[in-house]
Amino acid sequence: MIGKLTGRLDYRAADHILIDVRGVGYIVYCSDRTLASLPGVGEAVSLYTDMVVREDLMQLYGFTSLIEKEWHRLLCSVQGIGAKVSLAILGTLGPDGVSRAIALGDWATVKAAKGVGPKTAQRVVLDLKDKAPGVMALGGTVTEAMDGPELEVLEAADPAPAPKPRKKPTAPSGAAAASAGALSALSNLGYGPSDAASAVAEAAASNPEAGEADLIRAALKLLAPKG
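Structure for Holliday junction branch migration complex subunit RuvA, as requested:
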């Protein structure tokens, strides 16, 4: 199983890229959002990957974060959701958007993705609602994949001219880190995972710029007994 690739971006197409890893080219399919975030051709790139193997098919799907990869895996477990539809959902909403929509039971937002009808969107929310807290607690993009020994080995094995100065890998999302921290704090306070995830998602949707402490306060207000 190939879980991560680090190499040079050889070319990009409408729905996939080719990554050259020490002379071996890997075709990797990505969401529109992920494709837009990647560096230019000839530059260093690193992606988490998920491999699908069937009798007549072997394909790799690439993701910049573990959260995106995990949502892809879970979305594909829902009846009626294949890899292409999963990438369409992630490309439309992003992993944070998927987390919020499912935690809030907002199937209408999921339906906004191409190829997703009302029944399928409702099934996604119902099937994955209890799994949202675990995914929201994940964190991290590929932040250090192209630093240190890994890149040195890559460069030593490739006699081609040095690539253009590479962009710094995207730092972990502040919003995702704040949500994960708030979710952990609420869990430590004894709130159930589903209730905590829904409250954090609602608080984050109301104030996307909120830090961890603000999210905790807002979520506690939402969880407070009414009346």
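The mean pLDDT is 81.
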